[in-house]
Amino acid sequence: MMSFWKDKRVWIVGASSGIGEGLVYSLAKSGAKLLLSSRNENRLLEIVKSLSASDIGVIPLDIGDHRQLNNLTQQAWETYSGLDVVFLNAGISVRDRVVDTEVEVEKKLMDVNFWGPVIISKKLLQLKTDQGQLHLVVTSSLSGKYGVPKLASYAASKHALHGYFESLRAETHGNGLFIHLAIPGFVRTDITVNGLNGDGSVNGKMQQALAKGMDPLTCAQGILVEVEKGKEEFVVGGMERHTVWLSRLFPGVMKKMIRSNPVQKLEKWKQYFLKKNGPKPLSDQN
Ligand SMILES: NC(=O)c1ccc[n+]([C@@H]2O[C@H](COP(=O)([O-])OP(=O)(O)OC[C@H]3O[C@@H](n4cnc5c(N)ncnc54)[C@H](OP(=O)(O)O)[C@@H]3O)[C@@H](O)[C@H]2O)c1
Questions:
Q1: Which residues are listed as membrane-spanning (predicted)?
Q2: For the range 173-179, what are the long-range contacts, defined as Cβ-Cβ under 8 Å and sequence gap of 24 or more?
Q3: 2-239: CATH topology
Q4: Does the annotation count 154 as an active-site position?
Q5: Given this model, what pLDDT does residue 53 score?
Q6: Does the Cβ of 184 fall within 6 Å of ligand 1?
Q7: pLDDT at residue 281 greater than cutoff 70
Q8: Which residue has its alpha carbon closest to ligand 1 atom 1?
Q9: Mean per-residue pLDDT for 264-279?
C-alpha cells in the first residue's frame, strides 16, 4: 500500500497537530520525503525529533499571513527540487450563531481556511512544469457539503474550497494536477478547543461529537489510502459520513435533521443501527 509514497516529496501544511500530525506519523514510515508547516515551530521540531526519518524538514508558516506565502511556497518547492503531494490541511473553526459572530472573526477564518490554500495553490501552479505531476489534497469537512447551525463561516469556507478546487480541477484536466477533496467526519482533535467564539475569544472546549470521534491517526491513514486510490472526493469518518449522501438524496430530511441538535440525532441513529445490526468492528465504531 505504501509504495505509492516512496520517495514522494510531500509538504503538509497544518502538520503540528490532529489530522496533519497523523499524516506525518503515517508517512514517516513510507519512505516519503517530508516537509512540515504550521505556526508552532517548536511543536513541529518536537515531532521531527520523535521520528527517525532522515528526509524531513520544517518551514514555519502562518497561512493567514498572506504576504509571506509566495516566498515560503517557493522555499518548500526548492527544498527537494519540486513537490509531488501537498496537503492543504491547516484550518480553524468558529462556532457561534451568525448574529453573535463579528465580521472580522469570519474574515480571519476565511483568510486561514480559504485564501491561504488558494494563494499557495496559485504559486504551486506557477512552479509546476507542464510535464510534472502534482497532487493537492485539500481538507474540507462535512460542513463543506451542507450548512450547519453555529458553523456558518466555517461551512462557507469549506464550501468555497469545493467550488474553487472543483473549478481548478476542470480547468487543468490532463495537465498532471490531481485535486483530492478530503472530507473528515468527526475526528478527535483540538480543532474546537483552539476554535474561536463569535467575538474572537478562544473556545477552549472540545465539542462532544469530536470527543467521541475517530482518532486522528486512523483518519490520516484513511485519507492516504483514498489519495493513493486517486479518489477526487471522499469522506473518512464514522456513522456521520452517511449524512453526505443523505443530504444529496433526501435534502428535506437532512434540512429538518440539522435544524436542532443534529449531533444528538446522529447519536440516536447510531444507537438504533448498532442495536439492529450488533456491534461493529472497532474501525467502524468511531
Ligand atoms: N477534527 C475534525 O473533526 C475535523 C472534521 C472535518 C474537517 N476538519 C479539518 O481538518 C483540518 C485539520 O484540523 P484538525 O481537526 O486536525 O485540528 P487541529 O488539531 O487544531 O489542527 C489544525 C492544524 O492547522 C494548523 N493551523 C491552524 N491555523 C494555522 C495558521 N494560521 N497557519 C498555519 N497553520 C495553521 C495548526 O497548526 P498551528 O497551530 O501550529 O499553526 C494545526 O496543525 C482542518 O482544516 C479542519 O477544518 C477537522
A1: none
A2: 175/130, 176/128, 176/130, 176/131, 176/132, 176/133, 176/134, 177/125, 177/128, 177/133, 177/134, 177/136, 178/133, 178/134, 178/135, 178/136, 178/230, 178/232, 179/135, 179/136, 179/138, 179/232
A3: Rossmann fold (3.40.50)
A4: yes
A5: 77
A6: yes
A7: no
A8: 187
A9: 68
Spans of all domains in the chain? 2-239
- Active-site hit among 80, 146, 154, 272: 154
Over range 5-33, report the average pLDDT.
96
247 lines ligand 1 (CB under 6 A): no
Rounded to an integer, what distance in angstroms lies between the CA atom of residue 161 and that of residue 63? 15
Question: How far apart are the C-alpha atoms of 217 and 29, rounded to whole Å?
Answer: 13
Can you state the angle between helices 262-277 and 251-259, rounded to 10 degrees?
120
Confirm or reject: Cβ of 56 under 6 Å from ligand 1: no
- The answer to whether the beta carbons of residues 188 and 238 sit under 8 Å apart is no
